[in-house]
TrEMBL record:
Protein's recorded name: Putative secreted protein (Por secretion system target)
PANTHER family referenced in this protein's UniProt entry, alphabetically: METALLOPROTEASE MEP1 (AFU_ORTHOLOGUE AFUA_1G07730)-RELATED (PTHR47466:SF1), PTHR47466
Keyword Protease: yes
Keyword annotations: Disulfide bond, Hydrolase, Membrane, Metal-binding, Metalloprotease, Protease, Signal, Transmembrane, Transmembrane helix, Zinc
Similarity annotation: Belongs to the peptidase M43B family.
Organism whose genome encodes this protein: Chitinophaga polysaccharea
Biological process according to GO: proteolysis
């Protein structure tokens, strides 16, 4: 994944503060100690030394938290977020000041936690390891940790107690029993970048685990982070999408047992990251060693930079030069787990303000309360189809029903209704054990052009009244648009986007195609994909045309204007650099399958040759006209065209002046299936097929004496179902075009004249 402002491009898991010379010297000294050993003994000893040396370097790697870096990165990429972050900080400063004036002891609250274990080996993080982390949080956030006595006497009066307890969730967002742990298996060795708060770990669609409702649960993702980072938080109020809010912790720094590593083995990484979640900054203010920026907390001493290891008290620095020095044992510093001991009362005031005003719904969540299952409860979980844009007037509703009761579910009535129309019923029978689900296809219906709300609900589970009607109903919206005919054009001049009848596919609900005002090729607008700000690699976004009817046209062609640029210099880029990609696909079955007809990236796509580190806006001359032959892909069927962007964080792509037109085939070609023209010819000859025969092997040309002149194989047939032959250097006269099939042959006479 590409990383820009605020993110280390070259981060190593081995701590780079240990120079190469250190390892070299260790190796040389030990080499001479064993140089008199037999060869096999030496090799075995060498590999032991190699392993232990690297292990030692890894074990002492310094703590790295990515929270401040990620927030700065997001601001750099979207300057509008700076106002949100600054306003959030002002609110917290004001709120914590007001709380400090209140002498009342805050209410003790319990916050439900869901732990998403996203690893190639999910068993590496055990249930006991998760419990150990919850225990650490409950002690640290209630000043009940046994090592709090190690806080120096001068700061003992400043120790704060948040009175926040944490529990593993006892019920799911749907009200079912749960362990509070979700396990998702990744590819072997997969790690996640901290970009956007390790966003890829937070979506099923990108190999992670979807968050539970952020308003009711604190989401913690435990995974493998790349770049030697131990954790990263996505705090509320700082511009992260709601479903990304929460914290991510490297699996070897989570809890106190199981797969936990060395040094960061007391669960304080999670304590630290949840501090960020509730509004705390690093204690040194992230000003890179300066004394100009504070953490916004009055009772934490001004501190120049982070602290590693386990210093001796007092520790002085360039910002606090007299005793008692800096508060290196604060949970928001970078010291070893064994040397982290406290939050201050000022930090507690800020965290309680965030809890009670920004994340207040966590305080009233019932996630810590185990659910009680009733006997008969048929839930309609969702409507699977139809949804979005449909391509046919006939619908077959498909729903998912779930048995949320304690008794097996063997029968239920399912009803559905379109808009305010009549009800349609379906009698479902089967055998669902408690907390199991299945799909059911309901009776079909026909729709006209328009938009619809489909409502479905269940009744009479096992023939008796449903004991929990709150989960019986689901709704979904869909639409059926009028088909379009050819010729078809779109210049995105109207304000609506996507245009009427068009559709968007945006699976990550982030950046996608949009209308760009005042940027177009000889026009006032275009369709734009902002890849520069879309700092997530490999994401797919489609802009999809209406259903088009070719009306049995012989040939169909797509033309469009494109403008694109890149962030990475093409002249110096690595051959493996992941570029933004623009593709054109055709579907004839309402996007169930698609055929790729056009794919360009990097130097083949861009219209400005030089790299652009700011947002690319094309000039009048920085557009190119591209075309695609759709004929073979549509087979004279109704079809849609998808313009697909695959983002790799380069720069903007624009498309404009889309035209899809038909071209009639020569009547002779349609009648005979093959045409050799021009005939007579002055040199260049085209052999064109109406449809390429599956059994064609090759096409050869002979002169009147039967001498072989040239040949082309069937696989060389190109755009327009055409083979090209050049007879310019051949003498005038009679020639024969021989079409060789697997079990037959055909010959066509050809004349060459000048």
């Amino acid at each position: 994944m590409k990383k820009r402002s605020g993110i280390h491009r070259d981060a190593f898991f081995i701590d780079t503060t240990f120079p190469y010379s250190f390892f070299r010297d260790v190796y040389i000294r030990r080499f001479f100690l064993v140089s008199s050993f037999p060869k096999l003994t030496f090799l075995r000893y060498f590999f032991i030394i190699l392993f232990t040396s690297f292990y030692g370097l890894t074990a002492v790697a310094q703590r790295k938290c990515g929270t401040a870096e990620v927030i700065q990165q997001r601001v750099n990429e979207n300057p509008r977020l700076l106002q949100i972050v600054q306003q959030n900080e002002r609110q917290m400063m004001l709120g914590q000041a007001q709380r400090a004036k209140v002498e009342a002891i805050p209410q003790t609250v319990s916050i439900p936690v869901v732990v998403h274990i996203v690893l190639d080996d999910t068993s590496a993080v055990t249930y006991n390891q998760v419990l150990s982390q919850i225990d650490v949080l409950n002690r640290d956030y209630n000043a009940a940790n046994t090592d709090i006595s190690q806080v120096p006497a001068v700061w003992q009066p400043l120790i704060g107690n948040t009175r926040i307890n944490f529990c593993l969730a006892q019920r799911t967002p749907d009200g079912e029993p749960t362990s509070g742990i979700v396990k998702v298996k990744t590819a072997a060795g997969q790690s996640f970048s901290i970009n956007s708060g390790a966003a890829d770990a937070k979506y099923n669609s990108t190999g992670g685990s979807d968050a539970w409702d952020h308003s009711k649960y604190l989401n913690i993702w435990v995974t493998r982070l790349s770049g030697n980072y131990l954790g990263v938080a996505a705090p509320p109020g700082t511009g992260f999408p709601e479903e990304q809010e929460g914290v991510v912790v490297h699996y070897t720094a989570f809890g106190t047992t199981g797969s936990v590593g060395r040094v960061y083995d007391l669960g304080r990484t999670c304590t630290h990251e949840i501090g960020h979640y509730f509004g705390l900054k690093h204690i040194w203010g992230d000003d890179n060693g300066g004394c100009t920026i504070d953490d916004g907390i009055a009772d934490t001493p001004l501190q120049g930079d982070n602290t590693y290891g386990c210093p001796t008290f007092p520790k002085l620095d360039n910002c606090t030069t007299v005793a008692p020095g800096v508060m290196f044992m604060n949970y928001m510093d970078y010291t070893d787990d064994a040397c982290m001991h406290l939050f201050t009362a000022g930090q507690v005031d800020r965290m309680r303000y965030v809890l009670e005003n920004i994340t207040a719904t966590l305080m009233t969540s019932d996630g810590c309360v185990p659910p009680i299952l009733v006997a008969n409860d048929a839930s309609l979980v969702s409507i699977e189809a139809p949804s979005g844009k449909i391509c046919d007037t006939r619908i077959n509703p498909v729903v998912t029903i779930r048995n949320r009761g304690s008794r097996p579910l063997t029968a239920a009535t399912i009803w559905y209704q379109l808009n305010n129309g009549p009800l349609t019923s379906y009698q479902w029978t089967g055998n669902l054990n408690p907390l199991q689900q299945t799909t059911a296809t309901l009776p079909p219906a026909n729709v006209a052009i328009g938009s619809y709300n489909l409502k479905a609900y269940t009744q009479l589970p096992n023939g008796v009244a449903d004991e929990n009607v709150s989960n019986d109903t689901a709704n979904i919206r869909f639409r059926y648009d009028a088909e379009a005919r050819l010729p078809f054009k779109q210049g995105f001049e109207d304000d609506s986007f996507p245009p009427p009848g068009w559709d968007l596919y945006n699976p990550d609900r982030s950046f996608t195609w949009e209308r760009s005002r005042d940027v177009g090729r000889n026009s006032n607008a275009s369709a734009l994909m902002r890849n520069l700000g879309y700092n997530t690699n490999g994401q797919v976004d489609d802009l999809i045309t209406p259903v088009l009817d070719p009306q049995n046209s012989d040939s169909v062609f797509l033309f469009f204007d494109v403008a694109a640029a890149v962030y990475t210099d093409p002249a110096t880029a690595s051959p493996s650099n992941p570029w933004d990609t623009l593709q054109v696909l055709v579907t004839t079955d309402c996007r169930q399958t698609a055929q790729l007809l056009y794919s360009k990236w990097g130097a083949n796509l861009i219209t400005r040759p030089k790299a652009v580190q700011t947002e690319f806006v094309p000039t009048v001359t920085e557009w190119r006209r591209d075309s695609v032959d759709l004929t073979a892909a549509i087979h004279q069927s109704k079809f849609q065209v998808a313009f697909r962007n695959i983002s790799n964080s380069e720069n903007n792509i624009y498309i404009d002046n889309i035209r899809i037109v038909t071209k009639e085939v020569n009547p002779t070609l349609r009648e005979k299936g093959i045409l050799v023209n021009p005939n007579p010819t002055t040199g260049v000859v085209w052999v064109t097929f109406y449809q390429v025969p599956e059994d064609l092997v090759q096409v050869s040309i002979y002169n009147a004496a039967g001498q072989f002149i040239m040949s082309r194989i069937a696989k060389e047939i190109g755009i327009g179902n055409r083979l090209t032959f050049n007879l310019v250097n051949e003498p005038n006269g009679v020639y024969f075009v021989k079409l060789i099939y697997r079990n037959r042959a055909n010959t066509i006479k050809l004349m060459k004249v000048r």
